[in-house]
Amino acid sequence: MQHTLHTLKNGLRIVLLPMPGNETATVMVMTGTGSRYESERENGLAHFLEHMFFKGTKKRPSAKAISEELDGVGALYNAFTAKERTAYFAKVRSQYLDTALDVISDIFLNSALPAKEITKERGAVIQEIDMYEDMPMRTVDNVFDALLFGQEHPLGRTILGPKENIRTFERADFAAYLKRNYTPHNTVVCVAGLFNEKKVLAKIQKDFGKLPEGAPPTFATFASTQTAARMSVREKKTDQTHFILGVPAYPYLHKDEFALAVLATILGSGMSSRLFLEVREKRGLAYSVHAWIERYPDTGYLAVQAGVEHGKLEKTIETILAEFKKIKHTKVSKAELEKAKAFIKGTMTLSLETSDELAGHAASTLINIGRVRPLDEILAGISSVTASDVQRVAKDVLRSEKLNLAVIGPHPEKEKFLSLLHL
Q1: How far apart, in whole angstroms, are the C-alpha atoms of residue 188 and residue 11?
Q2: Catalytic residue positions?
Q3: How far is CA 300 from the centre of its chain?
């Protein structure tokens, strides 16, 4: 992962990742802000602002002008808002990088935020909220986040925000959030693929060097004080019950970050993982079941998600908890450990083969930990994990008093399921 890092006088960072022989190039502008940086009244503003960046600039006065220019070179382009990051990107055949870079730079630096477009876009954002509300597989994480972090903390609130907020935002709200959070010290411009480094660097320096300096925004930290198992049910008429069962875990760069990743992989990554074999293959309880980890600078979690028949929720929870107990009390075999490590190393290496994934990785790690994290460092960290490390971490995080169960489905009998939550 060869790269060069340049820092402008105003603090903005530029990462260039040449990929000789590649036929594509990706430009990504990422800023270290998202729903975590919103007040309760602002909740949903970061995501709404992301929409507004595509509504026109002085040079490209409409959404149609922006999309036609990118469609005209066959670009893959989009944006996303997360809890702590917001990004805008375009991937093109390398010969069209100049176009992609100019458009993405223009919308990031010069969005007009026209009031009439804000009024129209309210409806689109509300429809997006409604769309996901009809997809419990996609919204059960909102129930889980509110349970784990508390609705009073920004991490416990949704990225899209409540509809009542969306209906009230005015242009002044967007402008204030933009000034406070989209600062050069908080922004990374990344280009990966086949390109002329000297030419691209000069273009970025010219465009982004004009941004006025500003301190990066601050956020409310989080520390778990949980002392008993918890459950939250969003009662809803659904064909399946969707749930997440998880525990607080580690932040970025924790000394056991790699052991936690191996633990999660053994439990629920891939079709030969313990939970996939027990929950789906052996018992037929679910079509899909998987485990993953989420990390922030100050906290994180390990979680398992599945969708099951309403009447099989209890059995599925019991099965997952049995696997939690097993991995706490019995060391994993050498063969299973090596398989999990090879799975992580293989999937991560494959994921960084393309210019868009490489740009996303470089920008994200620079935002999250202050440097571009080399693939070799991650692979070496995974290789160093032992069976004792996995068991020690399992004992540390998989504890009865740390369990959190979030459910969407027709389940008013909360106490019955809460009584299952012990290890």
Answers
A1: 10
A2: 50
A3: 12
> How many other C-beta atoms lie within 10 A of the C-beta of residue 206?
10
DSSP letter for each residue of 294-341: EE-SS-EEEEEEEEE-GGGHHHHHHHHHHHHHHHHHSPPPHHHHHHHH
* Six token digits for residue 340: 């999990």
Q: Does 157 share its domain with 260? A: no
Dig out the tokens for 305 from the structure. 């998600």
> What residues make up the domain containing 121?
4-208
pTM summary value? 0.96
pLDDT digits (tens, 9 = 90+) for 35-56: 999 999 999 999 999 999 999 9
Statement to judge: residues 252 and 360 lie in one domain = yes
Predicted confidence at residue 188, as pLDDT, reads 98
Q: Report yes or no: 15 and 1 within 8 Å, Cβ to Cβ.
A: no
3-state secondary structure 219-273: CCCCCCCCCCCEEEEEECCCCCEEEEEEEECCCCCCCCHHHHHHHHHHHHCCCCC
Would you say 248 and 293 are in contact if contact means Cβ atoms under 8 Å apart? no
Q: What is the domain-level CATH number for residue 391?
A: 3.30.830.10
Q: How far is CA 280 from CA 262, 264, 268, 352, in A?
A: 21, 17, 11, 30
* Average pLDDT of span 359-380: 97
In-domain check, residue 92: yes
Give the sheet arrangement for strand 187-193, strand by strand: 4-7, 13-18, 187-193, 24-31, 86-93, 76-81
DSSP 157: S
Q: How far is CA 81 from the centre of its chain?
A: 8
- Domain count for the chain: 2
pLDDT tens track for 175-217: 999 999 999 999 999 999 999 999 999 999 999 999 999 988 9
